[in-house]
Each structure stands twice: as structure tokens, then as C-alpha cells.
């Protein structure tokens, strides 16, 4: 894990700009299903903690995990990941945000999303060395069930 020492290595503007690029890559991946550019923004030796799927080490492991999860079945329909709010600790290079994991319109115009806290550590040069996603699995299960029901109802 990344230490919490004060770095002062990057400006708030740089971290903010790179966080915007992080969001753009997630939006592109959600639209296209191609997660390569999203995974490539992590350092080769990154750590990614996902509370349901475990801890991954290294960019390639993150890429294999994300393409497997987001390319499988129902999760192919989770296409948007807007950020509701975020804070930047520029002294340490951390970004903490609330991500909305949103499914595509099921056909009736309803919105099905669940949020999670994402913790990112900036490593410089447009790269992230750490990500951790923290969420309530029950909220996600409820959101998925609602989406499946809405999609079925809209198809009738």
C-alpha cells in the first residue's frame, strides 16, 4: 500500500486534471466495452482493492479483472460511472470520491444506480498507483434486482 507521507510532488491542478482524465477513460470504457485505456492509467506495480473480488497487484491483473467482470452478462449493461462528489488531498496525492455505478436505460426511462466510495492515489505522470472501492453489497444487489425487473417489464 502507498504510504501516507506528505509528498508535495504534484499540484492540485495536476491531480484534478488527471482525475478528470480518469473519469473520461471510465466513460469511454463504459460506452465501448474496451477497458484497456482505463487499466493503462495504473502503474505497472499498482494495488487495486475491490472488496468483493479481492486485491489485485499490477496493471495487467487489474485489466484482466475489469474486462472479465464488465464483459460478463448483466454487467455489460453498466455503462456509466458519474462522480457525485470528490475531494483531493494534494499534500498526499489522494482523491476520494463517490462513484455512481449506473446501468443503461432498461427501456422505461428509469435510472438504476448504486454508489461506492473510491480511494485513489496519484503517482505522477498521469498514473494511479492505488485504488480501493468500498460499497455496500446489499445496495448493489437491490439495484441489480430493480434493473432486471424494470428491463423485464419494459420488454413486455
3D structure, described in words:
- The chain is of the alpha+beta class.
- The protein is 36% helix and 34% strand.
- It contains 4 helices and 7 strands.
- The chain has helices at residues 12-32, 36-39, 59-70, 137-155, and strands at 42-50, 54-57, 78-80, 83-89, 94-103, 113-124, 127-134.
- Strands 1, 2, 3, 4, 5, 6 and 7 form a 7-stranded mixed sheet that branches.
- A hairpin with a 2-residue loop joins strand 6 and strand 7.
- The N and C termini lie far apart (49 Å).
In summary, what is this structure?
The chain is α+β, with helices and mostly antiparallel strands and 156 residues long.
Descriptors for this entry?
single chain, 156 residues, alpha+beta, seven-stranded mixed beta sheet, 7 strands, 36% helix
List SSEs in N-to-C order.
Answer: HHEEHEEEEEH
Structural class: alpha+beta
| Portion in beta strands | 25-35%
Oligomer: single chain
Note the main sheet. Answer: 7 strands, mixed
Helicity, in percent? 25-40%
Tally of helical runs: 4
Enumerate the spans where pLDDT stays under 50 for 5 or more consecutive residues. none
Average of the residue pLDDT scores: 94
* Global shape: elongated
Rg calc:
16 Å
Span between termini: 49 Å
Number of strands: 7
